DNA sequence: CTTCAATGTCATTCC
DNA sequence: AAGGAATGACATTGA
């Protein structure tokens, strides 16, 4: 049921879906139809339903708050004529979420400026400085943020998050173009390792300035900021930090990349504070819900993602984001990496979250992070990073609080993204198109699907295992319905693929065999023809010799008067006894008769 | 943008 | 009956 609901939502939301997506949905649908109800599956479904209900409640709550914030912001607009940033502590999250329209004008200006700055600086690669510098130098990002206090969150986000720019700009006249260019520029800038390092250092500095009570917390906070590769991890850590800070929950040790994450510009800090505040303000569950809802989430995501986007160019993050986003707003992507960030939180979760529950985070994460590795051994997958950016940041707060390091628990929700979209969008943002394409090329559709649903088996395993082993594998690993359906479809398609290959191979072999037969027959024909010609020529020669011999014999014959005998008047005939008679031709017939 | 070959997928039938 | 092979027809993809 949930699947169907999700599917419908997706359809409504995404009209731009690729055929691949449609296919994927079909697969899901097929899976849903199939009746595979293990006891565990039913339990999962029940849990999913409850979670969905809870999420719904949360969503409503968020919407209310957003509306409130929106109203407040609107007032601000009237006063200033522009969107005036509200210093209010509550504003950050709410404003970030809903205010897009209001803030747009101010943002657009700032955004354009940022774009220009980027355009100017980008070619030289000096742009690194801008993001790195927390202060005035923060370049475009900072400037944008500075433009309006209330708009900060939005503005900040816009540059960082690909999707945001489009959203914010859309109302404005220039919007999309700028957003696209900006996104690309940002992506490239972020991708620069140097810049990341600088950012990380700045982040550290800023953190020190902020003087967070717990040193541990600092790293987590950094994690919040979306770094390309690090961003997700950072997010997770940040979430953890927030939780720990608020709820005094044990902080989770920051992910590997925390140090890198650290660097953030001053504007980022502002965002961060807002984010942290929001996270603290909203329970983790709320955050998750928000992810489920594109609109609501966007605001928060924007704030979060802005920073993250700046830093994060890692394909994995974008990948996941792309997945999530795909469900929400297909249009937004528009090929820009930036778009992915906002999406990540909202849609994907609701759609696929249910499915993913069975799997541990580690598995899921591995899947996400290693798009290309999907085919590779699962062992590799698992060994790989467990810091799934998307998952952590999405699920994060509640989960982290309760279980600091148990990432596995909630990741599934994040997974939701659809396979096809995932591969395409996610890879693009960080790495350049080439990488995306190459990685995409690597993964087959089924591999992408399996990856999307966090299926802990390789496609080869699913396809090639004997029936008994396959069933055993399925029984040992509790998969949700969607996963089971997908696994079956993968197996079916895999088998059929091999069958088709064999069939074509056989066809080709048959064709080759027929061609060979044809050649041999042609050769035989030629041989027989030549033999026939030889025989004919021999026969002709024998006839000629016989005729000459005949005439020779006649030439030696004489009649009684000694005259030569004409062959036209007589013919020679040999009796069975061997004696030869000279028979007149006229008489001859006469005699015979 | 079109064409074409290779390949994947689906539906169906048969074993 | 289930699973899979075989195969025609169509879709997708990349050159």
Report on this structure:
The chain has 593 residues and is an all-alpha fold. The protein is 74% helix and 2% strand. It has 33 helices and two strands. The chain has a two-stranded antiparallel sheet. Residues 1-47, 71-115 and 117-441 have low confidence and may be disordered. The structure holds a DNA duplex (15 and 15 nucleotides).
Tell me the strand percentage band: under 5%
**Overall body shape:** elongated
C-alpha termini separation = 107 Å
- Class inferred from helices and paired strands: mainly alpha
Mean pLDDT: 50
Q: How many H/I helices?
A: 33
Low-pLDDT runs of 5+ residues are 1-47, 71-115, 117-441
Instruction: Write out the strand line-up for the largest beta sheet, numbering strands in chain order.
Output: 1-2
Proportion of helical residues: over 70%
Number of strands: 2
Q: What integer value in Å does the Rg equal? A: 41 Å
Tell me about the largest β-sheet.
2 strands, antiparallel
């Amino acid at each position: 049921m949930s699947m169907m609901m999700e599917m419908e939502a997706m359809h409504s939301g995404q009209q731009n879906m690729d055929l691949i997506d449609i296919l994927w949905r079909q697969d899901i649908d097929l899976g849903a139809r199939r009746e595979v109800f293990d006891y565990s599956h039913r339990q999962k479904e029940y849990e999913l339903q409850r979670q969905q209900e809870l999420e719904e409640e949360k969503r409503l709550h968020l919407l209310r708050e957003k509306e409130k914030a929106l109203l407040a912001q609107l007032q601000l607009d009237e006063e200033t004529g522009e969107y005036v940033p509200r210093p209010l502590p509550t504003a950050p999250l709410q404003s970030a979420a809903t205010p897009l329209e209001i803030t747009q004008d101010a943002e657009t200006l700032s955004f354009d400026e940022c774009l220009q700055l980027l355009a100017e600086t980008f070619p030289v690669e000096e742009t690194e400085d801008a993001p790195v510098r927390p202060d005035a130098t923060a370049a475009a990002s900072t400037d944008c943020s500075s433009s309006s206090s209330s708009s900060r969150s939005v503005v900040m986000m816009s540059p960082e998050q690909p999707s945001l720019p489009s959203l914010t700009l859309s109302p404005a006249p220039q919007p999309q173009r700028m957003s696209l260019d900006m996104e690309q520029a940002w992506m490239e800038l972020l991708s620069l390792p140097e810049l990341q390092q600088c950012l990380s250092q700045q982040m550290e500095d800023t953190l020190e300035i902020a003087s967070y009570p717990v040193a541990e917390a600092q790293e987590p906070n950094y994690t919040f900021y979306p770094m390309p590769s690090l961003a997700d991890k950072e997010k997770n850590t940040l979430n953890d930090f927030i939780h720990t800070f608020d709820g005094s929950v044990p902080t989770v040790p920051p992910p590997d990349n925390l140090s890198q994450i650290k660097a953030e510009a001053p504007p980022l800090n502002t965002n961060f504070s807002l984010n942290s505040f929001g996270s603290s303000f909203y329970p983790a569950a709320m955050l998750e819900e928000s992810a489920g809802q594109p609109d609501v989430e966007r605001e928060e995501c924007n704030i979060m993602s802005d920073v993250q986007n700046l830093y994060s160019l890692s394909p994995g993050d974008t990948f996941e984001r792309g997945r999530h986003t795909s469900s929400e707003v297909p249009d937004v992507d528009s090929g820009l990496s930036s778009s992915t960030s906002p999406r990540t939180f909202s849609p994907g979760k609701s759609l696929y979250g249910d499915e993913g529950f069975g799997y541990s985070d580690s598995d899921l994460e591995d899947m996400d992070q290693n798009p290309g590795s999907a085919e590779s051994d699962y062992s590799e997958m698992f060994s790989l990073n467990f810091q799934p950016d998307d998952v952590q940041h999405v699920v994060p707060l509640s989960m982290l609080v309760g279980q600091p390091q148990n990432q596995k628990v909630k990741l599934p929700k994040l997974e939701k993204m659809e396979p096809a979209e995932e591969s395409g969008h996610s890879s693009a943002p960080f790495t350049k198109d080439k990488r995306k394409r190459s990685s995409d090329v690597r993964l087959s559709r089924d591999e992408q699907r399996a990856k999307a649903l966090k299926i802990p088996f390789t496609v080869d395993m699913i396809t090639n295992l004997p029936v008994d082993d396959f069933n055993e594998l399925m029984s040992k690993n509790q998969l949700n319905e969607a996963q089971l359906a997908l696994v079956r479809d993968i197996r079916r398609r895999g088998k059929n693929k091999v069958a088709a290959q064999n069939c074509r191979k056989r066809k080709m072999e048959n064709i080759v065999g027929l061609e060979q037969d044809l050649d041999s027959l042609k050769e035989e024909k030629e041989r027989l023809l030549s033999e026939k010609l030889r025989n004919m020529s021999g026969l002709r020669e024998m006839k000629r010799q016989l005729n000459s011999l005949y005439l020779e014999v006649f030439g030696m014959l004489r009649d009684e008067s000694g005259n030569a005998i004409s062959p036209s008047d007589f013919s020679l005939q040999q009796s069975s006894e061997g004696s030869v008679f000279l028979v007149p031709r006229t008489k001859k017939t006469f005699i015979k008769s």
